[in-house]
Amino acid sequence: GTIRLPVLRVESYCRLLDAPGNLAAALTSFTTHGVNVSYIQSSAAPPGSGAQVAFFIELAGHARDTAVAHALAELQPLAAFVKVLGSFACGAPDRDALLGAATSPSSMRG
Question: Quick one: which of 26, 48, 51, 93 could link to 80 by a disulfide (CB 3.0–4.6 Å)?
Fold first, then answer.
């Protein structure tokens, strides 16, 4: 029979610097490298973080994929903070639990 590999996703969190065009530039980096953004959620960035808005971004692929790594690296100059939360097979773990853990005070250092 056919072996079916799991569909992978990358969960990431970033706080973009408050500058015109930063969100568009961030999304363009994914387009440039052929990385599909399958989910994006915005939230207020923590006070004093140097950013106005934070984003949870779910990408198709694995954090070690060359295209994903290059696209995430291009976020660095646009962001006050970028963190890869992990690469997972679709369907596990629960997104809400993962995003809740990502915003805990201990995970925000960096």
Answer: 51
